[in-house]
Amino acid sequence: MKIKSLALFASFVFCSFSFQSVPMPTLTIEFKELKNKEADLYIAVSKPSKNFPDEANMVKQLIVKPKGKSTISISVDGLNYGTYAVMVFQDLNGNGKLDKGFMGIPNEPFAFSNNYKPVFRAPKFDDCAFQFSATNRLVAIERFIKML
Q: What are phi and psi of 135, to 5 degrees?
């Protein structure tokens, strides 16, 4: 009887350890110098793509409220280590989309990882790409661009 109980206990302990999940790493995105401290931030994390920025390759999408702060940090869970790019815009009029004007130029503040500032074209993935790894878990977006 003791041997059966010991075997049952050992199998329970083995199963409880073998089914524990390994926690996923967390990416932290820090936004600095927000001009508007109330308008929602629409954030997208994208995997590599030749058609960047496109919705098909977005692996995470978040909406964050600054709550009166000019600097905020958010945590993004559920990403594997790898190469990503971050796109964000601030929805000033609350309609849930990035408004564009003449020639498709955004009317609302926007930003990319690597603080990439487009000049004559939309960014390519490589312009905004960063490596998310055990030693690089922070992306700082230090300026928003408002074209018009």
A: -100, -5
